[in-house]
User: Fold this.
Amino acid sequence: MTFIGIDIGTGSVRSYIRSQNREPTTRVLPIASNYLDSNPRVITQSSAEILQQLIETIPSEVAHEKRNGIAIGATCSMVVREVKNINNTNYLCPFPVDFDFESTFYENSRQDIILWMDNRASKQADDLNKSLPTEILATMGGRVIPEMGIAKLKWLSDWVSFHKIEKKLVVFEMYDWFSYALSNQTSQGVLLNENLSRIESNYAMDGSIKGWSSSFLRNELKVADNIEVGGTASNGINLNFPPIGQLIGKVSASFKPIEDFEIGHGCIDCYSGWISSLTDPNSLISNDGNNNAELSMIAGTSTCFLLASEKRNTIQGIWGPFNQLLYQESFKSLYEFGQPATGKLFEELSQKYTNLTKKHDFFEYVELEIQKQEESKGRSFIQLLKDHFYYGDKYGNRSPFNEFDMREITMNGDSALKKDPLTELVIQYYLTIEFLVLQMKQIIDIIEDKGGIKIECIKISGSQSKNKRMTKMIKLVNPEKEIITIGSEKDNIPTGVFGARGASIIAELATEIETQEPGSVDYKELFTTTISNNNSLLKNKNRVVKLEHKNPLDEKVLDIKYWFLQKLSQLQLDYRQRLKLEDI
Assistant:
């Protein structure tokens, strides 16, 4: 048995390979993002470059067993391809998207991916907020934001119509495109499979592009007639939207090391990371009698939160409920929400102060300095920085407001700390943690108060799960909830490849489905068994976050700051909406 999981992140592609009687192997290779000089909101990538790196992460001597599978998780980015007829055969070729309405269109560019962080579609998001039915907007937290695929698709349609482009275009979710390419690649290019999956469900998850019916795309979104939403066709279970792990094809002969590997239907990367950390899959089964919920926090460059619940009501500011990810009739609905920049904020801090940190591990270096300051002053950093405040929606707000015009606000107060570059660094570092934790609490409180969902436990995975200052502060402001970090570096599961590991579990699920007789597939049983077999040992390696001691003054300071964050965020939201209302 060989199962390969691929995770395509913002800055790298990662593989996680499991073969029978062998230790898992991982590989990480960088991928580039391209920022348009004339408009930094335009951020693109090249699918050709990513595919090359993807294949490079898989060793040429990968083991072929009786059962072999591969699955892909990727960012919620949109791949744009043009249908070209070459020697009487239709191929899907890169269609460049590294431009805006004002800049030059470079036909030879290979930048065919609109990255999830790309915010060129702000106008289209506003237009959709005015035109879409309320019940559709409610599943997206009440508002469309530029980050969503639905806004990017509308932007592309508007651009094509404005420039009278008549070329036939096909757009894909990124994970779906690479699954499709693996099964349809030839020596001449990627074949256009005339049986491209035509999804006819009522709505898409997370405001993405895969899931809308053709009538919705044409009549509600007004998508140009020469643009289609592509996808991978499914075999086995006959569903409008195949669940994760559904068998969707085999790898073509163009990729010799993994030729004929079964391809499992993948997902957006936050969900593959979630699969990797899911230790109790039976808790997802509908009508299990437990109305309380467990929150999964997948914290990396950005942070995604996933919540399974028996509830079916929409919640303002929260995406969902959705039931397409898993086999719909057996599992609870999912809610999804997040913070668009978490690890990214720390990365930018490290770059800003690179002269100080370049010879050290960034987090260890900053934490050591904080400890020195706390020891010398005899007070916690919470108390030392009580007069400082940072509201960090530097890249807009995803939850709980779905307002990408929100921006960061800094209040520099007096403190007992001296002013020098190193102290400035540790202050910004601490305030970033404080903001992320307090905003997370704000989101949780909205879910519990407005959604009626009681969250008992928070499980944290991803690179930020190693940040003990952050995890302890999460516990401090959520004292009644159990806080658990998933796995550790000692488990041979580096946090950076958690998503790839989850994708390898999805690949295994696909091979399990392939062994079943047609019409007799018990998806619920196969899903829960496959997850349990892979993740049961993680239960013994999770770390329960505990506070050695609690300082009442620390709690008071954070309570006041949380009160202020709620007031300040609502005030900024009102300000942003007032500007739009007055069309300023």
